[in-house]
Write a structure and sequence with these properties.
The chain is of the alpha/beta class and 168 residues long. It contains 5 helices and 6 strands. Strands 1-6-5-2-4-3 form a 6-stranded mixed beta sheet, with helices on both faces. Helix 3 (88-108) packs across helix 4 (128-141) and helix 4 packs across helix 5 (157-167). Bound molecules: ligand AR6. Residues 9-11, 21-23, 29-33, 35, 81, 117-124, 153, 155-156, 159 line the site of ligand AR6.
């Protein structure tokens, strides 16, 4: 499995799946979530509403999939990161679940390439260094038959520097 770093906007990434740092409502928000819904169009929200009506809210650490609408990807995998509350043990475990559950879902869809944003490191205030370590370790420990490439898409300079170092 190859692991890459790209600096930029995840909505522009050509991968089979891109991951969204959503919230439990699945109905959109700011940050990367807002960018994905804006660029992907109404089809994504429509499918999120169908999922909501079926299963209710999406719990922290879990993941669901929709179409990618107008985006170059095939799928958007929506996962809900933990809000950093200082309980390191709990937050770490929930963030690991985000990466593992997104990868499991991707695997079940036969995805070959998947792009992740830096989940929880924006509005949810997860310390970036720790979040980066968890992201890199979790994807490197994931055993997959179908996934060939994982792309970490860093939007801000601080995350880019952290991932550069972690992946060096
Ligand atoms: N492409 C890639 N990464 C991005 C983009 C983009 N277009 N825009 C922002 N980022 P955040 P969270 C980075 O706040 O902390 C939403 O309102 C950003 O630099 O988007 O998981 C949801 O609806 C940061 O490193 O997500 C939830 O309510 C990272 O994406 C809540 O925010 C995550 O920042 C989730 O908070």
């Amino acid at each position: 499995m190859k692991v890459e770093l790209i600096k930029g906007d995840i909505t522009k990434i050509q991968a089979d799946a891109i991951v969204n740092a959503a919230n439990s409502s699945l109905l959109g928000g700011g940050g990367v979530d807002g960018a994905i819904h804006r660029a992907g169009g109404k089809q994504i929200l429509d499918e999120c509403i169908v999922i909501r009506n079926k299963q209710g809210k999406c719990n922290t650490g879990e993941a669901v999939v929709t179409t990618a609408g107008n985006l170059p990807a095939k799928y958007v995998i929506h996962t809900v990161g933990p809000v950093w509350n200082g309980d390191e043990k709990e937050c770490v475990s929930l963030l690991e679940n985000c990466y593992n559950n997104s990868l499991k879902l991707a695997e079940s869809l036969g995805v070959k390439t998947i792009a992740f944003p830096n989940i929880s490191t924006g509005v949810y205030r997860f310390p970036k260094e720790l979040a980066g370590k968890i992201a890199v370790e979790t994807v490197k420990n994931f055993r997959s038959d179908s996934i060939e490439k994982i792309i970490f898409v860093c939007f801000d300079d601080e995350n880019e520097a952290i991932y550069k170092r972690l992946l060096a």
